[in-house]
Every structure is written in C-alpha cells, then in structure tokens.
Amino acid sequence: MSANSVPVTYAAPPTFLSSDHWKQFQAAFLAQLPLQNIHWKSASRPSIRTIQQLNIKLVPIDSVRDEQTTQIPLTVIERPLLNLYIVVCEDNEAYKNVVRKQIKDWHSSVIQRKGQEWLILYMDRPDTKATAPSFFQVKASVLDKIKADFNVDKRDRCVQIAWSPTFDNPATWVDVITKVKEGLLSAFDASVTQREDEVKRSENQRQMPGWNFCTFFILKESLASSFEGVGLYEDALLQYDELEASFYQVLREKNLSWFGTLISPGPNDDSLPLLSTTKKPYRDLILANTISVFDFRVYLVARQCTLLGRVGKVVEVGRKTIAFLSAFGKRLLEAKETIPLGFVESWIYSSALSVVEQCDHWASELQLEESSVAAFDAIKGELLELARHQLDTLGVQLRYLPLKSPFSTSSFLLPEELSQLVDASDYSVTQPDLLSSLKDKEAFFDLYIKLTNRAIERYAKARRRKFALKLHGSLAALDVHRGRLPTALQTFTSLPAHYAPHEWTSLESLALFEAMATHSRLERAKDTEWIHILLAFLKSYVNSAENELLIQAEDKASYIQTLVDALRYAADELGADLLHTDDDMLTVQIYDKNVETAGTQDGSYLDVVVTNHLPCDMPADEVIVILTGPETEKLRYSAKIDTLMPGNTTLKLFCAMPSSGTHVLDSTEIRIRKLILQQQCRRNSGPTQNARLLKDLPVLVHVPKDLRALSVSARQPDSIELGQPPQLLVSLLTGRNLLSSAKLKLSSSSGAQFDCKSAILHGRDTSTFELQEHSITLKDVDKDAVISFLVPYTEAPAFQALTVIMDVEYTTSSEPDLRRVLRTARLVPTSLPVAVNVQDFFRGSKLFSQFTVSTTSHQFVRIRSAELSVIGDNPDGVEIEGCAGARDSIITVTPVQPGNFLFRLISKHGSVRDPLRLTITYRMLRDEVEVLVKHAIDHMATESQVKPTDVPFLVNAVLSVLEADSSWIEPYVVTDILRVPEIDIPDKLTSRLPMALQEKCREVLEYGWREICIPVDVPRMNIIAAARIRIPSDPFGQAGSQPSKRVPLYAGQPIPAELTITTSFHWGGGNETKDKAYRMRFDVEELIKEWLVGGRKRGEFLAKDGATYTMAITLIALHHGELPLPKVAVTPLPLAGEYAMGSLALPSTETYQMHGAEKILVLPRGGRSTFILDMGTDTAS
Amino acid sequence: MPPQLRLNAVAFISPQNHPILIRPFSQSKDEQLKYHYLAHTSLDVFEERVNSGTKATESYLGLLFSMENAAVYGYITPLKMKIVLALALSDVVVRDADITTIFRALHMAYYHSVANPFLKLHTALDTSGDHSALMLAGSPKWESFRRRVDEIGRAAGAQV
Asked: The DUF7077 domain covers which part of the protein (chain A) (predicted)?
C-alpha cells in the first residue's frame, strides 16, 4: 500500500503537455510537495484533525479507469480526489475558439465523478506580458472568463499562477497549494462522509438476515485504511477499536457463522511473527468468509498494533498483545481437540518474543521519554515473563520441572491436564529455539534461565524490583530442582531481606522456609547462619496467622518442634555466646511494676510473664530482665528455667542487689544454651521526639527500699572546718547481713577525687579494714553495724552539691558464693546550711565583733552555741568574752530571723596576728527531730515495747507523718515538745509514743550536734579616733567652779563647747608605727535645723598615739528640745613624706563619736509677754 | 447480562505497602502463594502509575497487568490505601464499571471495618496519622473484615 500518497489527475492541452514548459511545471509543482499541515474540519468530529504531511501522486487523467469494477470497497484515497486542468492561453480569441471547448470537455467528464474535486490552473506567462503590456486588460479577462464560465457555485475553483524563471519559489505557489489543499479536503471529506454513512447503514442492518460481519469488516476497514493513508492514525485506530468491540458483540451472540473454524493451524502458525499483517492473505480470507477466528483475531491485533506502532505507542502495543495472548490463548485451549499439543504455548512464546523484537524496532526510530522508557522496559519484561510462563507449562508437562509452585501455577491448563506426562516428540512446535530445547533437558534449562534473566534485566531497568524478586525466587527454585543447592541457598537467604521491610511475612517466611530446606538438603553444619535463618523463620511464623502461612509442611506444629529441638542442639554446639536481638517469638513482659523485696535476704523479686508464641515447648535456660537506674546503675533480675510452654508463663525473677528507686526496663534476655535472645525495650529516641505510641513509652519499675538491706550513705561530716580539705562521711549500714567481706569504692561523675588511702575511721567500731588507693575493704562485719569513714576529697569545681557514686561489693557469710553489688549514687550538698557575717566595732583597745548567723536554705537551724577562740597558744594574750545571755538556750535561726552573737576582744598588744576561730554548734531542725524520733523508738525497743526489727519501719512512719504536716514546728521550737500529728501505727503504741518522745526530748539535746569552724581574722585599723563634743556642766561660769546644779540651756543661746579628738594606734599593728604622727582633718557635721556651729568647724591636726587634740567651739541651738550633738568626721590627709605610714596609701581610720548617745536638753528661750484683757465697761454708771 | 466475572483474590495493602489482608479464594497453597506474589508485584505497577505524572483524581487504576492466568486490577484510595483484584483470565470484554463496583464495595468494607473504635484500643490517642492501628483490621483477630470481603467475593463470583 502506498502510504501517504493521494492520486491527483491532471489534464492540459496536448500542445502544452508535449512542451518543455510542462516538464518544468511538473518539476516545480512536485517540489512544493508534500503538502504540510492540512486542517480537516469534519462535521462529524468534534475537533479539527491535522494531517501533518500528505504526498500527491500526479497521474494523467487518462490513466484512471473510471468507475469501480469491483464490489470490494476500496479506500477513499485509492481513486483520485482532485482533477487539475492547466490552461495556458493569452489570447482572448484563442480562448473563445479553442480552449474553452477543451476545458468544457474535461469539466463535463470530471464533474460526473463522485467524491472528486476539480481545479483549473491558469498559467500567466510573464514573457508575453513583457512584450505586450497593453494587453493587461485582455489577459485578465481570460481568467475572468474562465471563472465566469466554470465557477458555477460559490467556490472559486480557478487559480492563477505567474510564470517566472524562479518558478520553484514557494511564494509563487502559495495560492495554488491552498487551492489544492482545499480541493483535496473537500473531496476527502465528502468521500469519508459518504463512506461513514455506508458503514452506519450496514451496522444498522446487522440484525437483518443476510448481513455479513466480514463484509461489514471490509467496509469499515476501508475507512480505517483511508485514514491511515492520509496519516490520521488515531482515527484509523478508532475504526479498528470499534471493529473489535463489534467482534466481541458477535462473539457474545455466539454467532460465528461468518468465520471458518476456530483455528485451522497452518504448519508454522505457532511461530509466525504476530504483528505482521502480510504473513497471510488475510483480506482475501475475510472476503471469502473462510478466515478462521484465530487468523481473524491475529489480523485485527496486528493491524491495531501496527497503527499504535506508527504513532509511537509501543507500550500500548505491549499491553494489547499481552492481554490478547493471554486471553485468546486461554480461549484456544478450550478447543484443544482441534489444536496440536503445545501449539498454544509455542504460539504465545514466539508471539511474545516477536512482539518484543518488533517493538524494539519501532522504538529505535523514536525518541522515547524517560518515563516511557521505563514503562516500555516494564512491558517488555511482562512479555518476556509471559513467554517464560509458557516454558513453565511445557517444562512441567515434560517433567523437566516439578509439578509444584512456582512452576505449576502460571499455566492456563487445568491441574489435571498439567499433570499428564508428555513426551517431547508429541509436540508440534516449529519455533526453532523451543524445538531444540524441548528435546534436551539442559538446553531447556539454559533457555529457561536465559529468558528469565532477560525478563529480570528488563524489570530491573524499569525499576520493578518486586517483579524481579519473584523471578529470582523462581530461578532459585529451579536451582533447587537441578540440585544446585549452594546457589539456591544464597538466593533464598538474600530474598527475605527484601520482603521483611514491608512485613510481607507470607513471602518472607516462604523464602526462609526454602532456605532452611535447602540448607538441610545440603547437610551443612547447623551453624550461626542457620540459627539466624531459623530465628528469622520462627519470627515470621509467629507474626503470621496460622492458616496464612504458605509453607508446604504437613504438620506445622511437629515441624516447628523439630526445628526448635534442632535449635537447642545447635545452640549447644556454639563456640561463643550468640546474641540475637529483637525477637518476637518469646516476649517478656513485666507483670507487676511494683517489685517485692525478698524479706529474708538482700534483693528483690520481679514478676514477669514470658509469652511463648510458638505452638510447641521452647527449651530455655534462663530468663533475665535488666533494669537501669540513674548513674548507669543496672539491676539484673534472673530466674533459671527449663522449658517454656506455649502461651504465658509467669515467673518470679530474683535480683540480689539491694538497690531501690525507680528504674527503667532496659532489656530482656532469654538464654538457650549459648544463644541469647535479646529484646531491647528502650527506644533510642531523642528527647524532642515525643513518644507517639504507648508501646514506645519507657516501662518504669519501682523497686522499694529494703530497710533491712545493706545500705551505704554519704553526707557531710558533723564537724566542718573551713579552710581544710573537705571531707565526706561515708557510712555503711550492714542491716541484716553478716558480712564476710565488703569492698567500698567511691567515685564521682562531677570530677571530684576521693582519697581513700587517708580515710579515717569514724566512731568506735572495731572491725578490721584495709585502705587502698581507691577503695576500702572491710572484713567480718557484724549485723546491724554502722561503719563510717571520713574520706577527704578534692573537689574540682565548687558546686553546690557533690555527686558521689558508691559501689559496694560484698559477700555475706550465709551465702559466701553470691557476690552482691550495690551501686548507689548520692547527691551530697556541699554548701553550708548557715552563712555567717561579721561586723567589727573598735572602741579604743577593745574590739566588739558581731556575728550574724543566717540559714542559707528554707530550713530551720538550731544553734546551741557560738564560740570565738584563739587558735594556738594565744601569744598576744587576747581576751575574748562572749555575751553571757546566749549560753543557755538554743537559738532557732529561721529564714526570716537570723541569730546574732556578740564578742568583745581585748588585746593587750594591739593588733592580733593569729586568726581566731568561730565555732558554731548547730543542727538542722529536721535532723534533730529525726534523731529524737529514732532515739525514742530505740528506747521503746530496749524496753521491749517494740520489736527491734520494727524499729526502722516505725521511724519511717513517724518521719513521713512529720514531713507531711508542718503544724508541729512552731510549738516545738518554743516548747521543745514534739507533738506528732495523727499517725498510723499499732494501737498500743499510739499512747506510748508521744510520751516517749517527750521524755527523750531532753536527753536528745546532748548529741547529734554538728560543728562548723570558721577561721576569722581580726581586722587591723591604723587609727582609731574618738571624737567628743562636750558641753561643760557650767558653760557660762568661771573655769574651775563646780555648780551643784546643771545650768539650763536655752534655744538661741550661744553655748561654749569643747571638741576633743583622741587618737589611738592600738589596732594598727606593730609597735614601730606607734611613734609616728599623722596629719588629720576633722569636720563637724552641719545640722542646720538644730545647731549653728561657731568656731573652727573644720581643721587639721596632728594625730599621735594616745594624744588628744582639744579645741573650743560654740554651739547655738536653733530650737528647743532634746537635741543630739553634731557628729565629727575625722579623715586622714593624703600627705607624703614623713607622715605617710610607710606607704602612700591612706591609713585606715575609724572614728567613733563618744557623744553619740548624748542628748542635750534645750529649753525654750525665756521671756515675758503682756496680755491685756478687756474686762467690759460698766453700763450702770 | 454481562458474562460472570470470576474473582480469584483480593488484597488490601496499606499506604506504607504493608499487607493488610490478602485473601485468595482458593484452597490450594500453590495458588494462594501465587496471589501473594501477584499482590506484592502489583505494588511496582502502582508506583509506576502513581508516579507517571498524571494527576491521580481517579481511584481506579484499571488493569495493572495480566500474568499467570490472572488479570490484576488496581484501586488506590484517596488515603493511598491500595486494593488489588485478581480476576481469572477470560476472553471476554471486562467492563471497567463492573470492576469499579467491586472496588467500591471492597473499599467500603475496609472503611466500615476500620471504623471499629476497638481497633485503636491499645494505641496512644494522638496517632491519627498512624496506620499501624488500621493494619490490625486485617489481622485474624478481627473477623468482620474478612467476612465482609468474603461476602463481596461471593457476589463477584469467587468460590469461597
């Protein structure tokens, strides 16, 4: 078929045809071809179709035989669509006489033809124009005349073309080409419309007798071919799709009388290329109504695919052929009596391969996009896989392949047909590859593997991983069948990893199952790898429901049992412990989050539930639960077991460690010989990431405090001396344990270093101990003993608190084999509970120091005494005297009320070089009460009112009540009587306890006190100045006279006064300075509301040790009342030279006002006032 | 009367490609395995179709592929849950409308089953975006979903 070429006839006067001009014209006209972009607007179609390119075949009009000679409908473009007549005539006369008739003859013959158009081409010759320009009018009238003569309807079918040397210039052809296109389109449109009407008419008659599907098909196909001929492939395809639809309708009506048999297999039918439309004379067969359904459908698909291939839709081709091959292949098998054995398989096989080839051929001419390349690869993969499945069927029939999955499931044959044994010679197969491979088993396998690998390769390129995986699985199955076990094992062990991430347990377990089966057939040692496979299999087994597992074992429970047994032996054989994490078949859950203490020994019990998800007993040796606490503290609970029954088993796990507090479940382990199944329970999620699921939240376990267990505590020692290296008091309480040995180690996470070597035993205990560099070892310690050590330490940065981690490893004499480890972390506050401030007052040779003690926390501090003493042998002979009153009673310092302590120092030799020491004896109110309660209850125990073992519980109970209520504090501070609020203790004690507490209050006062020693430096003061303003008792009298009565002073009266300044260098330190003198300045304070000061208010004087400078001033009181005297400020002057005190710095000076407490009574000024009162007039006189 | 379809298997797959329920209507283990494979491989095609760039306004994806004596159809819900149907191959025109009807019914079955508040009994409250609870719908513990699917399967010609 000459595609894309439409015949167009031409006619012209014979003279022109024989001239060179004609050849020139024809060449030029053909140079304009093919026609581009013809827009076809059809009335029956919604959108404009564009014919991209259309070629024209010019034929002389005589060559076309008129009218169709056959009944077979031809395509509409097989006959000319357009007739051209070329007129060359300059002369009006010639036209009238000769040419008009010629045109008329042609015209009359042409317009009779149906569905054809005509066009008259008038050639304008410029050479004649040049010779006779005056003829312009005439020439134009030739064209006009032609138009007038032949244009019968509105359409202008005449066109002019200028004859020029540049004849092949496209610009000169524009009009002509447009007209040609118009003519072609109009003719095409008319023909198509007519043909479509015919088709419609035929379709409507399909229910009438005598209608023939084949005739209808040929008619409709002619339309499709017409579209194809002009390049409208989409429209052509549409026709075929409609044909296919109507075929299916025919099929449904089961009216296949127009066809021959379903199939009449030709000799090579199974191996001919599917997409070839010329391999058989299909049209003739159709016309003869003898075509078989097989041939018909192959032809239909081939035509459709060819058209799809033309428009580049190779993916569609693949999709269509796969659907066709599978669906029709199945149909063919329904009539298997008429078809030779293996025909269908061979046909599908070779067709699929030929389609791949054909599509590749088409695709090589196209530039496929990235996405469609992948789709194309995918569809090729599917085609190849389809071909591969035919090999499966053949192989199973030949017994080259076993009758089981995955080989047996892809066949179209029924299982019983598939299971029939077939000999290779029974097949009538013509595909050469297939033919040779069917005879030879190895060749068959080669072909099988080659084809599968081709499909895998395509899938891999198309990124269809899961398809490829399936094929890999089938290859591994083939390897198993062929006995190539190592490769099969390799494949099967790598496959589960691909199925596991998406929890496709069914496929995962199958691959694992196959891997294990292969492994056992290989008779390899059941090593670590085998255990991993087995555990993965068991995991997927428990994860999938019983009936959903696809493995091929008859009795799953016994199968699992044998596996588990094998696992135990394999685990026994292991060289080293094997850790397997995250296991689902055995889960350990904490049953009760409150742990139970052991009671008779140190340690605690944890109740757990172990769930065995397997259907059989699981041999196991030990169940272990690990809890973590603060500071990497780990508790390991364990229990020895024998087997775990299916379902839940409740176990009590024991941990010998005497730790307490809240712990997090860290991990659980189940030990099976040397295999450890571990379950991590802590998710390593960052703190910002909220736990979204309940199962992600940490499991908290509370381990209660066992008061009778060994415990270790650390606190600040009772006596703290500032300035010395700090010490820590570490106490070990043995509780119920008779220790045979114990090793105490101290460490800190904050960088402090403990010097255990220099530890000092604190208290009177006589147990033997050894001091090492980092640890203290104790031997043979009795029950309920408290052993305390003072351990010095160096603290890297001075924090408020010190983290101490105390590790105690100990063995008791009752259980010498059990080594217990206690790891306790304590935060010991290193800051002092009290703060001390000092204020010094110098008075001549005496010094008064006031110490203010305040609490640094919110707690109350009880202070029994504060003493100031001299360190050493007191060479200066300092006398210190405290305030007498504070001695007896206890002072309670609260956050709002600090305590004050005042001391007087008398130094004989001036300044004191040795430091003093302030010792404060105190205790926290809380500690005091704790001691008191403990003491009282201990006492009750000695009087056998309470069992000794109950003592810790009772103390705890009372203290927790006191902690909860603060109402007892105020009365206790005032009265020293502790009234315990309502408390939950046995009845017989409720009455005794308060009494005991009151009794013991006094006794308790004597111990439990703590000491803090603070070194205090006595301050130095170079100059002490005592200023005094003295008003003599008789300021106005003569000197020397002593009046018996104090003279009254009045406001406004000038009063002579005496200002004396006594300077002392006593506290200046060193005798050598005492001889010196300093220039100093005094300044009387201006009290402008009370006093006017006369005389030298300000002046300088020379200060000497013990000297007194005297000066007279005058004071005038400004108002009456009791007035304090003005103050005097004395400051040293910054003078260099001999007066400087050895340095340029100003000497330190303190001034005190000796008259500071004096007040002068000033009376109002005396005077007389006369008041005259009007006594009234005598009205009677 | 359109020719009777024969439904061979149904698979529900979560947006994270985890299988929720794979229900082959066959007793043979080999056949069941085949449909597990088909459901698994169909994920590749789902991915292809979803990534092909065309705006996925339509849930029904049509025929995914025909392989191993089965025609596999796909459906993806607006929440990206995938439903796969495997029909027995036959040489008749399968109308998309019929398939879509089955898919709608299956989708509704899933929807009704997931609406069961007890599914989320053991999960935290703020897990609206979490599908693990929805995965439970297909677990053997919850019978109703299977029953609904089987009913639809029977209606669509499966031999349950």
From this structure: 708-815
Q: Are A330 and A379 in contact (CB under 8 A)?
A: no
Q: Which CATH superfamily is domain A1023-1035+1046-1162 in?
A: Immunoglobulins (2.60.40.10)
Q: Please compute the mean of the pLDDT values over residues A567-581 and round it to a whole number.
A: 79
CA distance B112 to chain A (A): 22
- Provide the CATH number for the domain formed by A6-130+139-205 in this structure: 3.40.50
Contacts of B89 (CB under 8 A, 6+ apart): A326, A327, A330, A412, B66, B69, B70, B71
A847 neighbors A905 (Cβ within 8 angstroms): yes
- CATH of region A832-1018, choose from 3.40.50.300, 2.60.40.1230, 3.30.70.100, 2.130.10.10: 2.60.40.1230
State the best of B30, B94, B123, B146 to mutate against chain A, taking most chain A CBs within 10 Å: B30
Lowest mean pLDDT among A762-771, A858-867, A1150-1159: A762-771
Nearest to A330 among B29, B63, B89 (CB): B89
- B30, B41, B53 ranked by CB distance to A470: nearest: B41
pLDDT digits (tens, 9 = 90+) for A413-425: 776 777 777 777 7
A656-683 burial by CB neighbour count: b if 16+ within 10 A, else e? bbbbbbebebbbbbbbbbbbbbbbebee
- The residue in chain B having the minimum alpha-carbon distance to the alpha carbon of residue A694 is B124
Q: Where do the structural domains in chain B lie, given as residue ranges?
A: 7-155
pLDDT at A65: 60
- A591-635 per-position pLDDT tens digit: 777 777 777 777 888 888 888 887 788 888 888 888 887 767 788
Position A884 scores a pLDDT of 59
A985-1019: pLDDT as tens digits = 666 666 677 777 777 766 656 667 888 888 888 77
Mean pLDDT of chain B: 78
A686 pLDDT band, cuts 50/70/90, is: very low
Q: What dotted CATH number matches A580-682+697-703?
A: 2.60.40.10
Distance CA B62, CA B45 (A): 11
Minimal Cβ distance to A692: which of B19, B41, B127:
B127
Architecture of domain A711-829: Sandwich (2.60)
Which carries the bigger pLDDT value, residue B134 or residue A675? A675
Q: Considering Cα of A599, then A600, then A602, then A606, what sign does the dihedral take?
A: negative
The C-alpha of B32 sits at a distance from chain A's nearest C-alpha, in angstroms, of: 7
CATH topology for B7-155? Beta-Lactamase (3.30.450)
Q: Determine how many CB atoms are found less than 10 A away from the CB of residue A205.
A: 12
Is the pTM for the entire model greater than 0.90?
no
Q: Which two tokens stand for residue B63?
A: 């025929």
Query: A142-146, A259-263, A902-906 — which one is most confidently predicted on average?
Result: A902-906
* B44 chain-A contacts, CB cut-off 8 A: 378, 463-467
**Closest Cα of chain B to A328: distance in Å?**
6
Alpha carbon of A1175 to those of A492, A1171, A1172, A1178, A1181: distances in Å?
Answer: 141, 12, 9, 9, 15
